[in-house]
Amino acid sequence: MRSTLLRFSFYLMLCCQTAWAASDAGTPNTHEFQLSNGLKLIVREDHRAPTVAHMVWYRAGSMDEVNGRTGVAHVLEHMMFKGTDKVKSGEFSRMVAAVGGRENAFTSRDYTAYFQQVEKSKLDEVMKLEADRMSNLNFDDAEFLKEIQVVMEERRLRTEDNPSSLLNESLMATAYMSSPYRHPVVGWMNDLENMKAADARDWYRSWYKPNNATVVIAGDVDPKVVLQVVEKYYGAASARELPVRKPQVEPTQKGIKKVQVKAPADSAQLAMAWKVPKLQPGKLDDDEPYALELLAAVLDGYDNARLNRTLVKQERVVNDVGVGYDMISRGPELFLISTSMAKGKTVEQAESSIRKALKEIVDHGILDSELKRIKVRILSEQIYKRDSIFGQAMEIGSTEMAGFSWRDIDVMLERMQTITPAQVQAVSKKYLVDKGLTIAVLDPQARKSSESKQGDNRAVK
């Protein structure tokens, strides 16, 4: 569990009637275009290998869903592989594989994205396929009924049969009152059981439009040529008015929330989550989110970070510990610490050790040498990430979906280098307090015997 900047891998002027391009002297290998139908195109040149990553990002994720239809964003992701008038169900993946490429898709709280990685001469072919299903998705009710069973089985295997996932699901549902972040991306089972093909079609018609999409292409490409091909395939799609997005501002929390989950597991687990601020678009000079990023790294940014060193190696109260914080996102954010208990240790002991480690930072701060080491590590990891063409496309797309520009990435990294130990200490003192805390505990239950398990095996269809 790491922060956004730690997790994600991080012009010329051209004008015509249907597109414009912006250029930045600091990043001459990145080019941004806007098509007349509202689609944004970002091209990152990287000529080190004859390959290209092609990604389409729709700014529609689980946070855009409404009660009773949770999980529909993820279900539609599945249905996008079920064919168009030109491409039969199941043929999309086969056609990408036939040109030596790999492809997949993923849904998050903030967006849904589709990608292909191919040899550069095959870019036109996968772009044609992706543009086709942006406008011409066509699946029947029978296809939907088969696929919704696959999604329900996915929920069973990845959530209901996974104690850590169950704990996180209950944590989010307890921490948030108003924000749609309280719903799981995969959806609640009852909503999946009652979902209809019409729900998926409505989602597609509402959100899968060029004016709600960003195409990111990274690799060994010529931006001028890419723009022409994108105009050819994506330019025909029509813009459409998007649904009104309600703000759904999360009410201020006024005290500790607690939830207990009983599930088969080998050991107890503890998760502690605090309400914290995030970085806002246009306000890149807000120091608190950067300080929280660095606090997460102080606690869990490397093998000998504070929590791992104290709780795992010295006190041996937990088997593992993780810290999570996303500085950029569309919705509200949590600063999360999660652990699983070591044999013979209790949740109360783990919570006490975590609180003690946090109090040490609140009372005494962190060393300047400690913070410098973390900053160097962040920069070095960023350099390594940019060795990956796909990683560059991921970083650009995820940043854009959160409401920022790819131009902000380096600004954020530079700003983080200016944060002081006193600022890290200040945010820990200000935000890691009980009034904004939610605690989730997994109470482990005995697992079924191997004999009874054999009669209850399930497999994804």
UniProtKB/TrEMBL annotation:
Pfam families: Peptidase_M16, Peptidase_M16_C. Residues 1-21 form the signal peptide. The keyword Acetylation does not apply. It comes from the Bacteria. InterPro entries: Metalloenz_LuxS/M16 (IPR011249), MPP/UQCRC_Complex (IPR050361), Pept_M16_N (IPR011765), Pept_M16_Zn_BS (IPR001431), Peptidase_M16_C (IPR007863). Belongs to the peptidase M16 family. This is Peptidase M16. It comes from Polynucleobacter aenigmaticus.
